[in-house]
Fold this sequence. Notes:
By secondary structure, chain A is an alpha+beta fold.
Amino acid sequence: MAFLELTNVSKVFGQTAAVQDFNLNVERGEFVSFLGPSGCGKTTTLRMIAGFELPTTGTVIINGNDVTFKPPQKRNTGMVFQAYALFPNMNVAENIGFGLKIARKPKDEIKKRVEEVLAIIKMDSFGNRYPYQLSGGQQQRVALARALAIQPQVLLLDEPLSALDAKIRVSLRQEIRAIQQKLGITTVYVTHDQEEALSLSDRVVVMNNAKIEQVGTPFEIYNFPNTEFTAQFVGTLNHISATVRDVANGVLAIDSQQVVTAQKLEGVSNGTAVTVSIRPERISFAEDGRKPNVLNIKVENITFLGSIVRVQVRAGDNLFLMDTFNNPFLKLPEIGDTVEITFSKEAVLVLKNGS
Amino acid sequence: MKATMQTTQTLSAVSPPRARNISFAWLGVVPFFIFAILFLILPSATLLIGSVQDRQGNLTLGNFAGMFQGVTLKFVAAPSEASLLGVTFPLPFTVDFQSNSIVSAYILSMQVGIITALTGGIFGFLLAYAAVLGGLPKFVRSALLTFSGVASYFSGVPLAFAFVATLGRLGFITVLLRNYFDFDLYMTGFSVISLLGLILTYTYFQFPLMVLVITPALDGLKREWREASENLGASGAEYWRYVAFPIILPSLLGTMILLFGNSFGAVATAYALTGGNFQLATILIFRQIRGEVLQDPGLGYAVAVGMIIVMALSLALYYWLQRRSERWLRR
């Protein structure tokens, strides 16, 4: 039995379905992220776990107990909010100790626990400061400490880093992951940032239009997307028009040039127009070594992105991108040059349309 | 070092003197400054100067000394009783207080100010709470705010007349109660021209002011604070006790101080309603400066300066409390 179970969970607001038929099992100590665009239902699902929203249908079970209709106070979950939600009238120590004070714990125990979690978030000397005296990153660490202080069964984080600047976001997410692993606490994390979800999670739940699109490890989600939405939402994806030439051998034509896919073609016949998807980083210049697929393309644009150089190329009517790692000895073609690019059979994905 | 100094000298020698640019934006605030000089600074200066002059124009502190002439205050360690608005309550000590008309007027003004600040404040807060956080339909909130915007400025002679027409001996409500409900309001001892009537009338413009000022503070209570406290195990009452109430307390106290000042400085409503039956500080000043019997402008000015000091202290406290709550709510 999983530690956190969501079974057939749905939530309807008026005429709008915010979450539909959501099923997920989270193991004890697992870090699961809900990833999707705004309005896809990820925060609503998290709020149903916390008890701030009641499911229209379905059940929420934590550690074997059905908490579906229990109020938030009775669930023992720790929530970290996007806007920190620290109590401005209390200093850091009082904020962290609030849950323990409500639980009528002895003062000595509260003091000891507050010191422990302050040490965990590396803010030992900040106990007497007020929230307005802290930076955004520090406030969010205090919010995390406050959620951890009550030793919750499940830690819930609702886009906790989205209000912070890029550099702090990266360092804090590493800190969150390290703390989660150290404490072994079951964690559900909501984000619309794919990099965050992929770098933090044991498993990622990709959501779209109130439904789960795909559940898998970051590796699976990125490399083997089940649906076009997942493929598009996670990472950058080229969409290229092609025609099926030989169904049995996976042969396709892009701008009259032949390419092969490793994927088994189903539901199509020779001559069918399809859309194939190739990630930009799976394409390279042919002089690096030829792979089964080679295309003649024209270089349209070159953009320097630091560690990566993004090249926009054209094959007939198809305009797409290829990424190559930057290095000081990199030899790039000129804009307007016609060169050969190459990619593997496995890089060519013919996605389920309309899913 | 030498080179640097030379460079600096050369630059300053070459640079033309910088002309001070006066922005035309200042023109926009000129009417405000003229208004403030004519109706705030000049009258205040006249009061201040008048308060330290005798009738012949000589400098004196006699006006201020005159305010406290004959006033004595002694505490005796013996139990006694005190009475406020007809309610008697025990005191563990006896106050031997001999007042004069001026100090009595201040005390009465402060009593009216405190009571109307409390009644208007509590009533206004409960109304604002119901409209903002009570889950009532949105139109209730806009209707209440519109009413409050109008009612908070409804004071003076029109308000006094409205209350006489409504709750006077032949007022609409009084007659309605007598004729249709067989209830004679005036048989209970109530009178609109009593202290209770005055407090009721003041409350009419006090509670809308509370609604207007406290609504933004209630709006400022973030939903996440309630959710965070619930998530940490707190009940609704605990959330209000430990989080919401302490957060809005500075605003609440600050607004009550504002209400006190609003009531403390009011004159026209009281004068029109009671015809001067109640010796409030403002009515006393009016009589000392403009009256035919009691006229002593110097003393009137001194009493007015005393009022300015009370008002200034109230506003300073209000400002300090507002700053405190703004600091909390900054992020």
